[in-house]
Amino acid sequence: MKGLRVLQGLVLLCILLIPIVIIVFLKTFGNNKYDIPVLFENGVEDPFMECSMAENQQHYIPDFVLTSQDGIEMGREEMKGKITIVDFFFTSCPSICPIMSTEMERVDDAFRNQDQVQIFSISIDPEYDTPEVLKDYAERHRATLGKWFFLTGDKQLIYNLARCGFILPTLDGNGVPDDFVHSDKFVLVDELGRIRGYYSGTNREDVDKLILETKILLHGNE
């Protein structure tokens, strides 16, 4: 009989402890946040001494001005206060660019009604990719007006921007499409100009992750 009372007491104690366990669990895990890192908080390594950047400081996208498919000047100033998704491409690219642009269509569509999100697709073949060529390319990919900008400009500025601003490998093909080298990455940049992530523009799952993390940043700014 004594053993039965002890067992009953233990059962009652467990029942009483259940709400406490639930409360502790909710307090510990209920407010979990999806953490999107800020990259290059301690600066960027520059082993080849190609870039002039502050050491041991947060890296920000530097100032730049390029020209859009509509002949409008766009650059770092227009990124302020907005989330910007950036890629580097060229319209005559025979390999990964068509896939990247098709995936970027999905990104464009996902944020079609979000004024705080914009896309910069920057040409690494500006001598061929004039605003007129880019406008035709934008129309073929159904780019949302005022959201998805295709940019061209000074070649040296663009290559320095890719390598030293967005930290992406880029090599000039000197007009030969097969000789150009550029990254397949989409770059997520927050409203302060900090890089928050890199995503393969040729991988659907990676682009899905970009869309998700852009939404998280967007709602975090509301």
Automatic annotation (TrEMBL):
<dbReference type="InterPro" id="IPR003782">
    <property type="entry name" value="SCO1/SenC"/>
</dbReference>
<dbReference type="Pfam" id="PF02630">
    <property type="entry name" value="SCO1-SenC"/>
</dbReference>
<comment type="similarity">
    <text>Belongs to the SCO1/2 family.</text>
</comment>
<dbReference type="InterPro" id="IPR036249">
    <property type="entry name" value="Thioredoxin-like_sf"/>
</dbReference>
<keyword id="KW-1133">Transmembrane helix</keyword>
<keyword id="KW-0472">Membrane</keyword>
<keyword id="KW-0186">Copper</keyword>
<feature type="domain" description="Thioredoxin">
    <location>
        <begin position="55"/>
        <end position="219"/>
    </location>
</feature>
<keyword id="KW-0812">Transmembrane</keyword>
<dbReference type="InterPro" id="IPR013766">
    <property type="entry name" value="Thioredoxin_domain"/>
</dbReference>
<protein>
    <submittedName>
        <fullName>SCO family protein</fullName>
    </submittedName>
</protein>
<feature type="transmembrane region" description="Helical">
    <location>
        <begin position="6"/>
        <end position="26"/>
    </location>
</feature>
